[in-house]
């Protein structure tokens, strides 16, 4: 069966009417349509797929027999015999998803409908071996809490800083997690978590999460700009997540900072002179300290600015200029309809957005795009990891049952 991706990047299959792979191709297509329409009747699915009612009914019966589909009731209020309603069977498989942050590791167990059955948040350890052990422990705890057998987990997804080098089996540009760029990292993770493991860039997954559950829904072209412990950009173009040739699309941390910047890179920051060192949370705190403002965090800087402290207001103003400086390069190239701001810094829209818009108006001869603050908050990466895992898990469940 030839599998392809649709405009939203989902795994899907064409409706086939030829003699080869007819039944499996049509059943997969019906299953995909059911995921979007659930609950749905056989006549609805026949209309949606363009298949005959007889073919659709037979496919649903087989999917129900295999355990991928279940009856969920009947449609009421219809003239004549009420048609039966079908829905994907949630317990046909599970996905484990992780968001690996510098401070917090968030995990979730989700069924094949995308419903989260178990959620855990734990502090991220500083050593790689402890971090891998933590992931294994979280998997075991989540499965035990919901009574799920390890064999029922079809896919595990880790959202992590950096970009996976599949050939070398290691991550690059993952400096916010010490030791996470080890050359045998992927091997270590697979030994503990299994071969059914996907590692993806956290900002790309956050962008998927925002596209599925946040303000990016039904927006064909938008960017998700995350500013917090690190800085990154996720790109959705023509409804698809854009990764680039090597997976490095959106790595804006490597851009040069704004010239004549008054921001103060944090002491000991690696790769000095790069954009991230002048725009992330540590840079805001370092700038505040340089101005004589004793604050423990970027959050405290924004709180002080909201209270009217002139030094904090100066720090926030410089941060807005840095964000606009990066968008000055991004907007003319990608022409997004929407810029979504996320991360601990990006969510401070009340203080940042007026200045960002004004700087962009000064920088560019074109109108700035619309702006919005992430609606998924701290769950963006986790939601995206679940969504990415579901595409793989559903196909895997289908292939296993059809084998």
By CATH, the architecture of the largest domain is named: 2-Layer Sandwich
Helix content: 40-55%
Our count of domains comes out at 3
Strand fraction band? 15-25%
Q: CA-to-CA gap between the ends?
A: 12 Å
What ranges have pLDDT less than 50 throughout 5 or more consecutive residues?
1-20
With strands numbered from the N-terminus, the spatial order across the biggest sheet is 8-7-6-9-12
Keywords: Kinase, Transferase
GO molecular function: kinase activity
Pfam families: ROK (PF00480)
Family: Belongs to the ROK (NagC/XylR) family.
Task: Summarize the structure in words.
The protein is built from 13 helices and 17 strands. Helices cover 42% and strands 21% of the residues. The two termini are 12 Å apart. Helix 1 (22-37) packs across helix 3 and helix 6 (202-213) crosses helix 13. Mean pLDDT is 88; it is low at 1-20. With 403 residues, it is α/β, with parallel strands linked by helices. The chain folds into 3 domains: 4-88, Arc Repressor Mutant, subunit A (Orthogonal Bundle), CATH 1.10.10; 92-206 and 380-402, ATPase, nucleotide binding domain (Nucleotidyltransferase, domain 5), CATH 3.30.420.40; 217-375, 2-Layer Sandwich (Nucleotidyltransferase, domain 5). The strands form 5 sheets. The protein has a 5-stranded mixed sheet with strand order 8-7-6-9-12, with helices on both faces. It has helices spanning 22-37, 42-49, 53-66, 128-146, 185-193, 202-213, 275-279, 281-290, 298-306, 310-334, 343-346, 349-363, 380-402; strands at residues 4-5, 11-12, 40-41, 69-74, 84-88, 94-100, 104-111, 116-123, 153-160, 163-165, 170-172, 197-201, 222-227, 231-237, 240-242, 338-342, 370-373. GO terms for molecular function: kinase activity. This is Putative NBD/HSP70 family sugar kinase. Belongs to the ROK (NagC/XylR) family. InterPro entries: ATPase_NBD (IPR043129), ROK (IPR000600), WH-like_DNA-bd_sf (IPR036388), WH_DNA-bd_sf (IPR036390). Keywords: Kinase, Transferase.
């Amino acid at each position: 069966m030839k599998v392809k991706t649709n405009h939203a990047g989902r795994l899907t299959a064409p409706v086939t009417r030829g003699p080869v792979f007819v039944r499996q191709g049509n059943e997969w297509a019906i299953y995909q349509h059911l995921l979007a329409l659930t609950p749905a009747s056989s006549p609805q699915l026949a209309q949606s797929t363009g298949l005959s009612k007889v073919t659709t009914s037979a496919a649903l019966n087989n999917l129900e027999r295999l355990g991928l589909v279940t009856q969920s009731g009947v449609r009421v209020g219809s003239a004549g015999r009420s048609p039966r309603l079908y829905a994907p069977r949630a317990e046909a498989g599970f996905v484990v998803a992780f968001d690996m942050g510098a401070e917090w590791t968030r995990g979730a167990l989700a069924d094949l409908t995308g419903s989260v059955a178990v959620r855990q948040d734990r502090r991220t350890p500083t050593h790689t071996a402890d971090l891998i052990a933590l992931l294994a422990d979280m998997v075991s705890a989540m499965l035990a809490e919901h009574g799920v057998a390890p064999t029922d987990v079809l896919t595990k997804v880790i959202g992590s800083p950096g970009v996976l080098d599949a050939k070398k089996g290691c991550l690059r540009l993952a400096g916010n997690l010490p030791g996470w760029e080890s050359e045998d990292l992927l091997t270590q993770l697979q030994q503990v978590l299994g071969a059914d493991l996907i590692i993806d860039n956290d900002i790309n997954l956050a962008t998927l999460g925002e596209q599925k559950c946040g303000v990016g829904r039904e927006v064909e072209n938008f960017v998700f700009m995350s500013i917090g412990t690190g800085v990154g950009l996720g790109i959705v173009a023509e409804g698809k997540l854009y990764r680039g040739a090597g997976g490095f699309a959106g790595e804006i941390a490597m851009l040069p900072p704004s010239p004549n910047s008054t921001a103060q890179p944090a002491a000991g920051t690696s790769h000095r002179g790069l954009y991230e060192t002048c725009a992330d949370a540590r840079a805001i705190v370092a700038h505040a300290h340089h101005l004589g403002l004793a604050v423990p965090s970027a959050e405290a800087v924004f709180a002080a600015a909201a209270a009217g402290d002139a030094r904090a207001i100066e720090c926030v103003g410089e941060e807005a200029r840095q964000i606009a400086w990066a968008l000055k390069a991004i907007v003319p190239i990608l022409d997004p309809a929407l810029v979504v701001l996320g991360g601990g810094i990006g969510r401070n829209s009340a203080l940042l957005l007026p200045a960002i818009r004004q700087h962009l108006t000064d920088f560019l001869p074109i109108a700035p795009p619309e702006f919005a603050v992430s609606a998924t908050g701290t769950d963006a990466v986790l939601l995206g990891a679940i969504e990415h895992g579901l595409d793989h898990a559903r196909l895997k469940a289908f292939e296993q049952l059809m084998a």
